[in-house]
């Protein structure tokens, strides 16, 4: 691997592309009221603005990851940028419900290509200590980007218009496309044919699974379709010579632990990111902008800690760092579950956020590293796809569980407390996965 001198443009391309995906989710979180008002959407229709994106994002992730392995990372990455940028433009121009829902679904396809391909490019580009540092930045972006995006989304919703955030993606996508042409190596992939039956069955199975979680009607039917689709997909991957998700990815103990742990961890975090801004607006009277700014204690600490991950990994190991990070995140969530209005923001929310921020900073990068550990270059895209599937599906499942728990108590403070407790429970199970699977798997590979 050639030593890079000066500014690392490749890492910028990877991180900026990932940040664009995170930004759009946060704009939807903080801009729902304005979007509903501008486009005259009822609550059921409004939910599909997020759901349409989640369905295509989750459904196309495995295809997006494997396509880079077969046809070349750079050209697949550029295709993802074109789809995502065009989808963003159409969302910003939307004038009615069908247009914004269709545009969000199209945008989700672009995200499903970009998310795994950027991680695979990272794996191809960096080795040794450079790879540890690059993965640390990539993993940290999942936490930092989500938190910073809440602030940006709040600014747009409160001071400008929700459309600005989507229009912003167009010039950024064009710039990323130019930088990709200039700085990313043109590769032609390993060649071969795409597993179309595997692609179709995974698309049906994953989309139906996401719908069974976030849909409002026929959820049981969707779950049945998901099971049939996913069983067919696994059988196809077992028998085909060129699977889009090689089953050999799941024979490694460390990777299995990373997939299970990431699923649970992101489930807790996505629910936390979604319901906490609502608590601050409904119970403390914060505006959308202020509820975004209120995440700064978490964001700043997360950023500082994430910069130390590469050094700490060398000292404690990836698995050891992950155990500490998950334990701290769970402790912060347990603290947050004691929030009451008299306790207030600083001691009831900001202080627990500091602990959660330290935990996030120590956890997300090691989860990413463990999820792609010991993979050969030909499987890097597929492994990256599985990492992102666990991220996306885990987030959807956890969000659904925490929101349902909160609603059981009428959405009041007691509901928030119980929902956060459930999130802490998910984190404790993730901690068990790290101790039982990831740490022993990492030690065995040494």
From TrEMBL:
The keyword Cell membrane applies. Keywords: Cell membrane, Membrane, Transmembrane, Transmembrane helix, Transport. Pfam families: MFS_1. Its main location: membrane. The keyword Transmembrane applies. It comes from the Bacteria. GO terms for molecular function: transmembrane transporter activity. It is found in: Cell membrane. The chain crosses the membrane at residues 9-33, 45-64, 76-95, 101-123, 135-160, 166-184, 196-214, 220-238, 259-276, 288-307, 319-339, 345-373, 385-404, 416-439. Residues 10-442 form the Major facilitator superfamily (MFS) profile domain. PANTHER family: BLR6921 PROTEIN (PTHR42718:SF46), MAJOR FACILITATOR SUPERFAMILY MULTIDRUG TRANSPORTER MFSC (PTHR42718). This is Drug H(+) antiporter.
């Amino acid at each position: 691997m050639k030593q890079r001198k000066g500014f690392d443009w490749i890492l910028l391309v990877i991180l900026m592309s990932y940040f664009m995906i995170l930004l759009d989710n946060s704009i939807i979180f903080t801009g729902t009221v304005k979007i509903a008002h501008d486009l005259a959407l009822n609550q059921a229709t409004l939910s599909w603005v997020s759901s349409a994106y989640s369905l295509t994002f989750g459904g196309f992730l495995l295809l997006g990851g494997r396509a880079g392995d077969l046809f070349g990372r750079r050209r697949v990455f550029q295709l993802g940028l074109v789809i995502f940028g065009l989808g963003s433009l159409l969302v910003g121009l939307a004038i009615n419900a069908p247009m914004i829902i269709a545009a969000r679904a199209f945008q989700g396809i672009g995200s499903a290509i970009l998310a795994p391909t950027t991680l695979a490019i990272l794996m191809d580009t960096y080795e040794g200590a450079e790879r540890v540092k690059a993965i640390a930045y990539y993993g940290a972006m999942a936490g930092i980007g989500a938190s910073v995006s809440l602030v940006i989304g709040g600014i747009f919703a409160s001071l400008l218009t929700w459309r600005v955030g989507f229009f912003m993606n167009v010039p950024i996508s064009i710039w990323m496309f130019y930088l990709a042409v200039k700085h990313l190596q043109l590769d032609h992939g390993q060649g071969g044919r795409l597993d179309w039956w595997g692609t179709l069955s995974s698309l049906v199975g994953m989309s139906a699974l996401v719908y069974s979680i976030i849909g409002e009607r026929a959820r049981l039917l969707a779950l049945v379709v998901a099971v049939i689709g996913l069983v067919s997909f696994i059988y196809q991957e077992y028998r085909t010579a060129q699977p889009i998700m090689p089953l050999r990815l799941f024979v490694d103990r460390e990777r299995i632990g990373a997939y299970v742990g990431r699923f649970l961890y992101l489930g807790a975090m996505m629910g936390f990111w979604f319901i906490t801004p609502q608590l601050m607006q409904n119970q403390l009277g914060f505006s959308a902008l202020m509820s975004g700014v209120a995440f700064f204690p978490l964001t700043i600490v997360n950023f500082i800690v994430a910069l130390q991950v590469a050094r700490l990994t060398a000292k404690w190991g990836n698995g050891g760092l992950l155990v500490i990070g998950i334990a701290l995140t769970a402790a912060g969530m347990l603290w947050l579950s004691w929030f009451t209005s008299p306790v207030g923001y600083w001691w009831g929310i900001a202080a627990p956020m500091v602990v959660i921020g330290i935990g996030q900073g120590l956890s997300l990068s090691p989860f990413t590293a463990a999820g792609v550990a010991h993979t050969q270059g030909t499987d890097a895209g597929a492994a990256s796809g599985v990492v992102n599937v666990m991220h996306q599906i885990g987030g959807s499942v956890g969000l659904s569980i925490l929101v349902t728990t909160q609603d059981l108590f009428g959405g009041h403070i007691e509901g928030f407390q119980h929902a956060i407790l459930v999130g802490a429970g998910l984190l404790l199970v993730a901690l068990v996965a790290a101790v039982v699977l990831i740490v022993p798997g990492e030690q065995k590979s040494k």
